[in-house]
Amino acid sequence: MKKNVIYVFILSLVIACSDNNNDTSLSNNNDTNNSNSNEWLIPISEVKDGGPGKDGIPSLDFPTFVNSNEASYINPNDLVIGIINGNEAKAYPHKILDWHEITNDEIGGDFITINYCPLTGTAFGWESKSNGTKTTFGVSGLLYNTNLILYDRNTDSNWAQLRLESVNGGLIGDKPTLTQVIETNWLTWQSLYPNTKALSLNTGFSRDYDLYPYGDYKTNHARFLFTPSPTNSALPNKQRIFAIIDNNKSKVYQFSDFENGNVINDTFNGNEYLIVGNKDLITAFKLNGDYLNLDFGYDFNNSETFFKDNEGNKWSVFGKAISGPRTGETLTSTKSVISFWFAIAAFYPNPKIYSE
After folding, report:
1. Helix count (H) and strand count (E) of the chain?
2. Residue 295 per-residue DSSP state
3. Contacts of 16 (CB under 8 A, 6+ apart)
4. Best exposed site among 15, 97, 186, 289 by fewest CB in 10 Å?
5. Which CATH number is 240-353's, of 2.102.10, 2.160.20, 3.90.550, 2.30.30?
6. Which residues have a Cβ under 8 Å from the Cβ of 320 and sit 6 or more positions away?
């Protein structure tokens, strides 16, 4: 309990400083232990010291899990990050990731790093590798545009999460190999994958996982702990949106577009996309070849099937045909993420917003 009180106190200091627009950047900070070279792909004046320091927010390097029916600490509407690899499905609740941000895990025999930034609402899964070698990632203590900067423990290079790139260190310019993840609520994820396991509260750290550590941050559109740039008033800052990222451009879809379950075929940046979703979950795929000739429809009824096509195939949220003549085939996943609107607008300025 003592550790938890100390940690909340540290966060309160960060919040107090930030609410007074007292952002501290590396360019005016004498402590350079958090950066391993003077060369950055992003403006060093915009790299902020988050407060707790390197590994001050501890990653989970030895995560433990419980069966779905043992996860009573997760409420039905709690958001989780879901992943399936082979026959293994796992869920990582926001309420735990809010306190740790990074989980280095083994899923279906592959080493994968689940990383989540609570300040931008963005989560990715990527291979736990740097320079082609297995590694783990940690929280650098630095932020860019309010977003998490990770570091890899092989080379100490810094990685900007939402930029999806190493921005400093020996691996500068390298990009992670992404693994598709789904963000939705616990009830929906359990319906899709009832045999899922869930990240356990037994993390080895003393935290109150029922306490959200950032106060009203998620709901207060005017409140930032660190100032993003540029800003865009087209949507409320903290509105959760689904964004497809294609090179340095992005297109945004709102949950209201999928309120009763919907399928959208869309063209963006010269590519054809299929976006499928409901009020709790959105997923997308890049279409090519004869998949462009299929007529897809929403088809979720609290089972693994999420959409269908005119050939009689049933597809999962991960784009795998689970029944029908194309059983075993998989659609091409996209570089996409659920995010607070302001973050996509800062990293990918002037993103397009889908409208019918």
Report:
1. 4, 28
2. -
3. none
4. 289
5. 2.102.10
6. 328, 329, 330, 331
Identify the DSSP state of 225: S
Residue type, 69: N
E strand intervals along 26-87: 47-49, 65-67, 79-85
In the chain (356 residues long), the average pLDDT of successive 10-residue segments reads 43 42 58 66 96 96 98 98 96 98 97 98 98 97 98 98 98 98 98 98 97 97 96 98 96 97 97 98 97 98 97 98 98 98 98 94
Domains of the chain, residue spans:
2-199, 240-353
pTM over 0.85, yes/no: yes
Per the CB < 8 A criterion, the answer to whether 139 and 116 are in contact is no
Which uninterrupted H or E stretch holds 192?
Answer: helix 186-192
Cα distances (Å, whole numbers) of residue 282 to 40, 69, 142, 174: 34, 25, 30, 28
Tokens coding 185: 């609520």
